[in-house]
Design goal:
Elements: H1 20-29, H2 33-45, H3 49-54, E1 60-61, E2 66-69, E3 78-81, H4 87-96, H5 114-127, E4 133-136, E5 142-144, H6 150-161, H7 166-173, H8 178-182, H9 190-199, H10 208-213, H11 218-227, H12 233-248
Antiparallel strand pairs: 1-2, 2-3, 4-5
Helix pairs in contact: 1-5, 1-11, 1-12, 2-6, 11-12
Amino acid sequence: MGANYARPNIHRKIPNVLSKTQLLKIFSYIEEMDAFVACLVTLFCGLRISEICNLKKQDVDLENEKVVIKQSKWNRDRVVMLPRSIVSLIEKWLRLNKESEYFISDKNGQQFKPVTLSKKFRCALQKADLFIETHKDASGMPRHAYTFHTLRHTYATYLLEQGVDLYYVQRSLGHVDIHTTQIYAYISNKDLQNKINQAFHCKPKRDHKVEQAQVVDPVQLLQLRYASGDISLEEFQQRLEALQRLSQSTFYS
């Protein structure tokens, strides 16, 4: 017989992804600048939470617009391309954060723990009314619609929506098996939906949930935080630029 290829997991659940409106709302509620930058780079590079916590400054190559992920899952290294739109933000962050070898560190310059970063993101989800319990697992622990890992799911689905070949998405995510990446093909169906609606002359669907979420203006919320002294002018400017970059992207607009 030929090579023994791994079979796709037919029981794999389709992951949730975040819309642009949801992303803007979540990022406007992230309190600390370190967590804000960590989540932003995770979203634009599709990293695992352990990868952003383990990332060192020396592995961020701004000149060549890439990030080297070392000894990640399965002890594999990989290179992730860095979108040009956030290079200037990272440059500012590196000038601000000079106390540690790690790209993201705590106030003592120590490496961020995944559990700490996960809690910070969960707090933002709660404030954005997106910490939604879906079910309880076999041990009785609650599971939620969105977690920190949803940023990685959103990245992968977005790339496929933009026409990036599945092979390149697999490389960016660091998946050993292409079948693991194929799960995102099931949810990157915006173009198919649009073509079906056009064929049947359907009007665009009004998303009342999105309309309701847009009541909170993330920029206005950011201005209020600056005015109340919660964040410095430099932090305000960096966050504002990041929100504008995110708004200008085509993440599920």
